Structure formats: structure tokens, C-alpha cells
UniProtKB/TrEMBL annotation:
SUPFAM superfamilies on file: P-loop containing nucleoside triphosphate hydrolases
Name of this chain's protein: Amino acid ABC transporter ATP-binding protein
Membrane topology, as annotated: Peripheral membrane protein
GO molecular function ontology, one term from the record: ATP binding
Keywords for the protein's UniProt record, in alphabetical order: Amino-acid transport, ATP-binding, Cell membrane, Membrane, Nucleotide-binding, Transport
Taxonomy, superkingdom: Bacteria
Alphabetical list of InterPro entries matching this protein: AAA+_ATPase (IPR003593), ABC_ATPase_HisP-typ (IPR030679), ABC_transporter-like_ATP-bd (IPR003439), ABC_transporter-like_CS (IPR017871), MetN_ABC_transporter-like (IPR050086), P-loop_NTPase (IPR027417)
Amino acid sequence: MIRVENLYKSYGDLEILKGIDAHIHPQEVVVVIGPSGSGKSTFLRCLNGLEKSNQGKIEIVGMELTDPKTNIQQLRQHVGMCFQQFNLFEHLTILENITIGPIQVLKKNKAEAESFARELLQKVGLPDKEKHYPHQLSGGQQQRVAIARSLAMQPKVMLFDEPTSALDPEMVGEVLKVMGDLAREGMTMVIVTHEMGFAREVGDRVLFMDGGFLVEEGTPSEIFNNPREKRTQDFLSKVL
Ligand code: ADP
Ligand code: MG
């Protein structure tokens, strides 16, 4: 589903990604961990074309992102992304937030878009919020709407960049639960998170990044119980 080869990314003279190789299979849930500044967000942003890589190759959802002929807008329809900040449209209701993409981009009719949006609100546990506005919802509820909004575009892959980092602790669980449900349904997911319990429980594979390198990867039990690399051991000793 995703194939990354020798990916380099710099900002000016500052080299951020220094030759990343990664393959992610359909239905796989891959968790990316690593210290702040190691390039995790940059890596995710490269995967959906929000950042342009300097070198290397990215294939995702059957399209070659790094080919200049590829239509990035079209590619992004298949690659959902959720950030730390939910970025909902404040002046639209929850239902409108979820239907605007399908109506405007996928050209769905309103009734069809709304019926799917209601299904998704049910799925994220917010069936009674469709007429509310974002500011009337808690952070955890808004993030669940943001996930529903991404799913409304029927993506083939979902990318999450620290989706629970801006939430009050009591709201983290409800968002992780929605993500866990999605994983069990077979969605292909790449998730940057500091939630190590979630990584262990839901992840099929864990990637550890440090200093722009993919230092080590393995199953959750390999990475958390028997990390091979000193840098992984040092990082885990601080966060576990
Ligand atoms: P992480 O998500 O692992 O914390 P990031 O990918 O956000 O790491 O950042 C990696 C490095 O790239 C950091 O040193 C950060 O300061 C730098 N960086 C990120 N975005 C930009 C940018 N737009 N311009 C310059 N430097 C950036
Ligand atoms: Mg980040």
C-alpha cells in the first residue's frame, strides 16, 4: 500500500529525513515513535504530498507520489490525515463538516453524503451531534468528528499525526478506541503517537525514528521488550 525508498527531505541546508526506506502492507497498522524533532511529522507529510521530498521514491495507494505527472489532489483523496489540531470548519455544523468534502470533491449528492455521514457519526460514537457546531464539542469529540470527516472521503490509507497529544487526558481513550476499531476493520494506518500502550496493543509493527533515520523496526513486542539498538533502548527507557 505504501512503498518508500531512500527518502530525503531538507529545509534549506537542514537535512530532516536522511534516507528512509519503509514498506507498509494493506491492512497493516504501523506506529511511528521517536523523540521530538526526529522527523516523524515530516515523514507523514511527505506521504500525502504536503511536503515535497528532495530525493527518493514514494508509492502510495497505487500512485507514484514522487512522479511529477501524478495529480497530488487526486492522490490525497485516497489518503486521509488527522492531526493534533482537528481543524474543523467552525462555521459549519458537524454534519456539514463531514459532508462538504464528499459533496464538493467527490460530487456525491447531498442525501447520499448525509446518510453516510450519519453512519460515520454512529461509528465514532456521536450520533446525536450532527446539528452542533465544533465549539460546542469537547476536544475528544472534535477529534472523533475529524476522523469521521476523513473517513467520509473513503480513503485507502489513514495517516495520524499525534491525534491525542492536544487532548485532556480523560479524552484520549475515546479517540484511541475509535482508531482501534478502525484498525480491526482492516484500515491501513500509519500512526505517529506517544501512546505506547496503544502502539503495543493495536500496532502490527513499530518504527523507531531518530535524527532523520529509521533506526529500528519490528513487532511491538520486539521493539518494546527487546530493542536491539542503543538509541531505541535510551528512548524507551525515558518514555516507558
Ligand atoms: P517530529 O514530528 O518527529 O517532532 P518534525 O518532522 O516535526 O519532527 O521535525 C523535524 C525537524 O525538522 C525539526 O528539527 C524541525 O524543527 C524541522 N522542521 C520541521 N518543519 C520545518 C520547516 N517547515 N522549516 C524548517 N524546519 C522544519
Ligand atoms: Mg511531530
